Amino acid sequence: MAIQQQVNKTLRGIGASPGIIQGRAFLVERYKVRLPQKRIPALQVEEEIKRFLRAIEEAKSQLREIKEKILDPQVRQHAFILDVHLMILDDQMLIENTVENIRKRKINSEWALDLTLEKLDAAFKTIEDEYLRERRNDLHYVAARIFRNLMGKKHDDITKIKGKVIVVAHDLSPADTLQMQLNQVAGFVTDIGGKVSHTAILARSLGIPAVVGAEVATSLINGGDLLILDGENGEVVINPTEQMAETYLERQRRVKLLEREILKYAALPAVTRDGIRIHLQANIEMVGEIPSAKSHGAEGIGLYRTEILYLNRKDLPSEEEHYRTYRALAESISPGVSTIRTLDIGGDKFLSHYSQGNEMNPAMGLRAIRFSMKETDIFRTQLSGILRASAHGKLRILFPMISSIEEIRRAKTFLEEVKKDLLRSRIPFDRQIPVGAMIEIPSASITADLLAREVDFFSIGTNDLIQYALAVDRINEHVSYLYEPLHPAILRIIHHVVQSAHHAGIPVAICGEMAAEPAYVLVLLGLGLEEFSMNPIAIPKVKKMLRKVTVTEAKALTERLFQLTTATEIKRYVRKWMAERFPGEFD
Fold first, then answer.
1. Mean pLDDT in the chain?
2. Cβ–Cβ under 8 Å, residues 561 and 573
3. Intervals of CATH 1.10.274.10 along the chain
4. pLDDT score of 78
5. Which residues are tagged catalytic?
6. Would you say the pTM of this structure is higher than 0.85?
7. Measured CA distances, 567 to 188, 216, 275, 561 (Å)
8. Which of 18, 211, 238, 409 could connect to 232 by a Cys-Cys bridge, CB 3.0–4.6 Å?
9. Does domain 258-278+459-587 have CATH number 3.20.20.60?
10. Rounded distance, CA 428 to CA 436, Å?
């Protein structure tokens, strides 16, 4: 039954992929299936377990068929996401927990699987990293497919989209988006999701405007409604009036003009007006993002997150899998440099038999380099894969969450041992591969002058550094307002780290979200940073600003900021300076 038509109604969500477009809504009507809950006789338990396992095998066949039908090479590069879902279908925790629920509780498969999901959801809630937290959705996509198979429900056919439409859905699984004829999709709107959901990542990669997390979109939008979608500001207007449509169309013209203007900077070098060369690199999670990084002007990969290799699987990635992935990275970005960060999550986030139980404070618990040095086989396997790949291009190794000199020395000892193994086996690798420390813990920043003697480079991870230094959980809505990149303490910390690196003669990069904001970049430039790593889309805009300023101006600005005492005063001064120096350009 159609819902009442809305007129000139504006919804607000999260701008996940920039661009302003107008089009008709294609509503994916996928209502949540009501799950039957039944007690079963003891004699039926084994047959019920077989029914559950059949539904899993059916789901595997469906995903393999979807993968085989993807012909578009640009879309096919994202098909690895389906491999992640196939691995989830093999996950022993998922299977064994559900089978145990059927056997011990004597309940039907749907109920048993739902109880397993509740248990796994509890584990995901302890994850702070937004990207990893979003992987919970992968588990639910897979479970929804199993549920529909168990209940004999048909899977929606979304392959027959006709005309340039804006797809509106509660959520879209990777299987959904990969099946669509994406040349017929003008935009995406979803009720749930964040900036690192698969829909958002795919939309950004393909340049399709998207708004996610709009909450009530499917409740208010009818199929065929005229929509205006603003992927920059996260707005969706349903059946706009002529006046509203003209307002957005004018904004669209301005945005397109600005985008064309900014993209001209992608191919230009990032050189300040006084001739200082700045290096702009990209943060990525997948080799498939490299074409976007290159087209937006990245000189290399400043942060390659390796966590996706470990997630949602029953086994560990082999040395060969590491090697193939990192070799593809090195060769794809050549002659640029790629910085590979070793595993930066705890064991309980990807394999059930490595679970440490529910930690009281997982952000400060057994994770990152701490976990790697406890589970040494996992660490050595990854290091060996990186070293072997270093024979095929320029790679750097970055150790995360370093808190002390002892920690970095121990990590380097493991690396030297792996090097010796490869030398004995006569396997080629870069014997001088640079090794860096991630500066994201206050103890590391305070002792940066000592750490600088132990490594070849620093990479400042501002996201965690700000969180730890200010004691602010940035995903807690009650205190997130205290998460302030321009806090005087943060500026002083970064300044000390940069000065320590320069004194030791090693390069220092910044790879947190601060690196993508033009106003922050200006401040960071004044603090002495010359290497920035960010989301590829942000690179041309940052380049444009850098080419319009001098380092002398940036240093003068920063010196003035050190005379101010609060984050509010600093922000106000920076905004005023930017408005006077670049009127209307970097609002």
1. 86
2. yes
3. 42-151
4. 62
5. 198, 511
6. no
7. 36, 35, 31, 10
8. 18
9. yes
10. 21
